[in-house]
């Protein structure tokens, strides 16, 4: 995603996300150095478009300022390399005790 995005580009990005029905769409935000509410709006619209079609967006390369701003406004987005809620980290296995009932 470029550092600044115009309205017509937002419509195009949302349409592309909607076209990926039920998939996770990776959005590279590494170029966003000084995020503002405009960037938050674009990401929120993209996430909404993805969720309407059963998907999600996942951020690649977000800076600390963008993550802080997203947290401040309460927009929870997936970030590449982070463990999703409810999933164990890679390489972590759940222990099973003998005699435990099967799930």
Largest sheet: 3 strands, parallel
Q: In percent, how much strand structure appears in the residues?
A: 5-15%
Helix/sheet category: alpha/beta
How far from one another are the termini? 42 Å
Radius of gyration: 17 Å
Number of strands: 3
Query: How many H/I helices?
Result: 3
State the share of residues found in helices, binned by percent: 25-40%
Characterize the overall form: globular
Describe the structure.
The structure is a single chain. This protein is of the alpha/beta class. It has a domain at 22-79. The protein is 37% helix and 12% strand. Helix 3 links the parallel strand 2 (56-60) and strand 3. The protein is globular and about 60 Å long. The model has no long low-confidence stretch (mean pLDDT 82).
Could you provide a short overview of the structure?
With 103 residues, this protein is α/β, with parallel strands linked by helices. It is 37% helix and 12% strand. It has a domain at 22-79.
């Amino acid at each position: 995603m470029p550092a600044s995005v115009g309205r017509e580009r937002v419509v195009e990005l949302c349409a592309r996300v909607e076209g990926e029905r039920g998939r996770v769409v990776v959005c590279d935000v590494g170029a966003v150095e000084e995020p503002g509410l405009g960037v938050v709006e674009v990401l929120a619209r993209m996430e909404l478009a993805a969720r309407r079609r059963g998907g999600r967006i996942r951020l690649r390369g977000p800076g600390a300022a963008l993550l802080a701003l997203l947290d401040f406004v309460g927009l929870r987005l997936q970030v590449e390399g982070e463990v999703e809620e409810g999933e164990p980290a890679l390489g972590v296995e759940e222990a099973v005790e003998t005699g435990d009932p099967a799930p």
